[in-house]
Amino acid sequence: MSQARPTHPSSLLSRLRWLACLWVCGVLPMVAVAQDVRYDWQSVRIGGGGYVSGLVFHPAEKGLYYARTDVGGAYRWDDAAKTWLPLTDWLGAEDANLTGIESMAVDPHDAGWIYLAAGTYTTAAAGNGAMLRSHDRGATFQRVDLPFKLGGNELARGNGERLAVDPNDGRILFFGSRDAGLWRSDDHAAHWARVDAFPAVATSFASTAKNQWRRQPIGIVFVVFEPASGKTGQPTPVLYAGVSTRETSLFRSTDGGRSWQAVPGQPTGLRPTHMRRSQDGSYYLTYGDEPGPDDMSDGAVWKFNPADGRWTDITPLPRHGKPIGFGWGDITVDAHDPRILMASTFHHYTPYDEIYRSTDGGQHWRPVFPRSRFDHSNARWTADHHPHWMSSLVIDPFDPDHVLFVTGYGVWASRNMRAFDHGGTVDWWFQDTNLEETVPLGLASPAEGAHLLSAVGDLDGFRHDDLDVAPLQFAVPPRYANGYSIDVAGKAPRVVVRTGRIRGPVNAVRAAYSLDGAGSWHAFASEPGGNGEGTIAVATDGRSALWFPLEAGNAYVTRDWGKHWIAAEGLPKAARVLADRVDGQRFYAQDIASGALFASHDGGLHFTAIGGAFGKAVKQQYQAPRRPTNAVVYAVPGQVGTLVAVSARGGVIRGRDDGQVLRQSRGIDSAVSLGFGKAAPGRREPTLFLAGVVAGQRGLFRSVDGGVQWQRINDDAHQYGEVGYVTGDPRVFGRVYFATGGRGIFRGNPAGEQP
Fold first, then answer.
1. The pTM is what?
2. Mean predicted confidence (pLDDT) in 430-452
3. Which residues sit opposite 597 in a β-bridge?
4. Mean pLDDT (whole number) for 274-301
5. Residue 40 exposure: Cα atoms within 13 Å on the Cβ side
6. What segment(s) does the record annotate as region Disordered (predicted)?
7. Which of 304, 359, 573, 636 is most buried (most C-beta within 10 Å)?
8. How far is residue 336's CA from residue 358's CA, in Å, rounded to a whole number?
9. How far is CA 150 from CA 99, 217, 273, in A?
10. In sequence order, which ranges of 553-698 are alpha helices (DSSP H)?
11. Is the peptide bond before 167 cis (omega within 30 degrees of 0)?
């Protein structure tokens, strides 16, 4: 066996210098992964913001209940800490499709079991769904892949529950799919088999629905067992399943699911959305003409008594033979008093959605909200939002004063519901602590003022002076339904611009500016054309702005906040714009279709293509024959004319606007987003933060030496699905902020270091 000879120090030094030269010249792909850095992760608090599509209480343990969301995973309520605990943050980018939870179920006799049917879309590009099963209340999960797709963020996502555990034999589960019929497991969801005997209507055209994007399969929306029909330790013989169709929709099995028959006497013409069992053995069903949540203009509430087969219409607001303009989201029954019912309207936007309460089994109903007080202190922005999309409504089985209902932006809960029955006022609080479900579309961390500014889908955007406090949205005017693009002037950080979308007829300019660090806002004086949104950039000196509105066909420059607009020359019909961080006369643009780069040295008036090796390298990522990717370009802080492009194929490419490539980190397997933060002590170059794959490992990475070495800063338990925009904090070394595809905004700080 030969022995390695020691290297002479002088020859080693010479070799390192030679390698460094090759690296700087862009010849050598020299990327290394250093030891991981442990980070502490916390949500940047907004306080809800997304659609909580379902709630499930455990019937045998007080304080144990779960929430599912359409894009943000699942949560368990921690009754001692009075907060929601996220259960699915371990899902990584490759499994981002599983962050939409289609349904969930608990074993009524074993509090350890929680099952999640996970899958966000049924589109061709989406992967199949999976069953996530846990026997430790969601602390850990086992994944069981399913041979079909799920639609946790599609039509009918508030219906349910599609998944049910046999109350007499916890090994048995049934799941109603969207387009693959009914499925059964006999081993705690480890294996599944299709129930071929279930009626074909579950996979027919009649069980589909269409929104403005496409027709979607809906299929079976709930499975409900009749526990009294069986004995402990044996399969329950009687169970029901409801199909989202206006035809015959409710089916019953009396032999444990082997055969199925339509329930006689049932109403038709509407789609069932929920079915709830009462302790007296009767059932209550809510209906809508559409599955929701996009549309619903008619509906009803029915009571079904299996003992005599009688159906009774108990709709709180009768239809009188014609559509009522809205439907019904859910109904709940007090576990200890079957006379007490509550039902929620759905899509009743004129004047607003309502919850009705009955204390006589549905013979008489009274609206709850006219005698309600809402406490908005937990998330002040909720004061501008009336509850809607109330598709899950539950009376706590252990506390009839505690009633929860979901909305399109979180969970409300009562403290004293029974006061309503005696003429009192119901107090509601926003029970959404740590249930952060938003989709941020842009982040900015200024060099002074607030540490974080955000553009957020559905909620406009926020200025966070305190990252642990849910603030009000950006001050009006204007108010955007969607915040879309946001930018801060590099050398004048009090100057901020943003764009957005407005619902309904356009009656305001869809771009705004602030001169006090987003404390107050002013709409631009006018729009140059297009349909708002798009991307906007502010010059580093804060004296001009460049806006490329959606479908405008060009970018436009203003130097007087929209009083006058000048069309930029030399740009394609659709591009993303950004500003240099040093030179106030330099702007850049990237063709959305081809990836081509353009630069302006005269304040955005004229653009020319960036050619050379840099321009060619970026375009290659777009035009690759098999795997084209979006190579997103960023301007480097503190370096005039310097850009960085990141892509899922090309890694990180640093270049100049004259076309020169300065460095390409070819050792990076893929890159999704790049951000810049404060330089490490003793260094001048900004810290880089990367969401991507380095040396075969996916995660969030940090580099303090310009990309020569990368350190992974997250771990497998903290992946948060799809990570979007990443940015560092220019004032706090090591701090990073990132946007997710449904878990809101996170910030990370090196563990043990004081920010």
1. 0.92
2. 96
3. 590
4. 97
5. 9
6. 254-276
7. 636
8. 14
9. 11, 10, 17
10. 612-623
11. no
